[in-house]
Amino acid sequence: MAPKCGVAPITEAQLGGGRSPERGRCTVPFIAVGEHSERFSEKTFWGPDFDALRREDPEIAGVVIDELERLRGGLQLIASENLTSPAVLAALGSTLSNKYAEGYPGRRYYGGCQVVDVAEEIGNARTKELFGAEHANLQPHSGASANLAAYAAFAQPGDTVLAMDLKQGGHLTHGSKVNFSGQWFRPVSYTVREDNELIDYDQVRDLAREHQPKIVIAGATAYPRLIDFKAFREIADEVGAILMVDAAHFIGLVAGKAIPSPVPYADVVTATTHKVLRGPRGGMILCRAEHAKAIDKAVFPFSQGGPLMHAVAAKAVAMREAAQPAYQAYAAQVVANARALAKGLEAEGMRAVSGGTDTHLALIDLRPVDVTGGQAESRCDAARITLNKNAIPYDPAPPMKPSGVRVGSPSVTTQGMVDADMAEVATLLARAVKAEQGTLAGDAELAAVADAVSALVARAPAYPRG
Length: 466
Ligand SMILES: Cc1ncc(COP(=O)(O)O)c(C=O)c1O
Known about the structure:
Helices cover 42% and strands 15% of the residues. The protein is α/β, with parallel strands linked by helices. The protein has 2 domains: 103-322, 3-Layer(aba) Sandwich (Aspartate Aminotransferase, domain 2); 325-459, Alpha-Beta Complex (Aspartate Aminotransferase, domain 1). The strands form 5 sheets. The chain has a 7-stranded mixed β-sheet, with helices on both faces. A 4-stranded antiparallel β-sheet has the order 13-14-17-16, covered by helices on one side. Strand 7 (160-164), helix 7 (180-184) and strand 8 (186-190) form a beta-alpha-beta unit. Helix 8 runs parallel beside helix 9 (229-239). 47% of the residues are buried. The structure holds pyridoxal-5'-phosphate. Pyridoxal-5'-phosphate binds next to helix 6.
């Protein structure tokens, strides 16, 4: 009887080994479906099938299409988002999602892991090679999970952690009172200098000497400039602290060699895989070999159960993509586009925090045009430009009504946009920001900008049709 899933019955000849070309050896034999050519055919793959979704669940199918149309129809300027490739999406939508694989390759708590082991081993090898890291762990479900594991590996509840002030660009997991980091640890925050809005390394050193932190964290969620990892290393060494670099935002720029790497300096690097890196939503950790055991134990079993093996495989795909020369060109263009966008917005009367950017994002102070971050976010939304309101350093406005917005170039660069397009994006964004929503003239202007955005993205579409 033919199996229900429609996969052809398995013959003796089709019993094969899980062969990993990168490992060059066979794993425990498993039941392979078809010979190589057939194995890679559409008939054999059992994965994303939109017709099945549409038949089974038209409501959710509609949501999926609506979101695709939203991506296609507007400008995505959220600095922490990107547009993953079809290959990453195929791995994500695969049957690897079914597998329980608590543990690590070759040391699992479940049977039948010989196939997913290959995905994780390939992913780890690619990640280590891409970043020149001694150890990689691709299991964290998210950036926050990666950070939880890094804290767990190196600190005990009550220990002091020195990290960037949330109000100035630090992340929730860097000591917020509503997060584990602020509830279970003793956070001490460093800031940027008021005069140039750059990290104040003298202050970081002074605070480290005074508070003797167990962990010093470098990395942020809204800091547009390069971070001096060597300076952080020296400070951590002086007080005997672990240097943790939270590279969630910029790890993709490191992969593409567009900015310097923290790997030679940090004891541990945590990151997300879905921002500039353009992989699936998830987290990862890189560390020195001496910390490998502690990190692996802190991920599983300390803070997570079974890894999401479809996501691990998709991370492996993303690492392969990021190792290509085309990705290096992409990463360089991401930075060029962010710079061009910041410059364009300054030409429109706004102020780029710290005077510009070295990365994929810019923080824009809207006080010169007398608009709040919230107003700008809402007006841009109406004009099909997606961005987020954001506090600026030393923001005089309350956190829920911040004075700025954060803009990023990863998605529009994936769509193929270049510096000249950014000048147009800046003009459209400025028109939207300055349009008084709720007035006849303002709403007409927002509609006109939305039309211009549609025309712009039609020239460089996200997920092009056909
Ligand atoms: C610096 C930093 N660390 C950690 C995270 C958390 O990542 P996730 O949302 O995947 O938990 C973020 C998310 O934006 C981030 O910016």
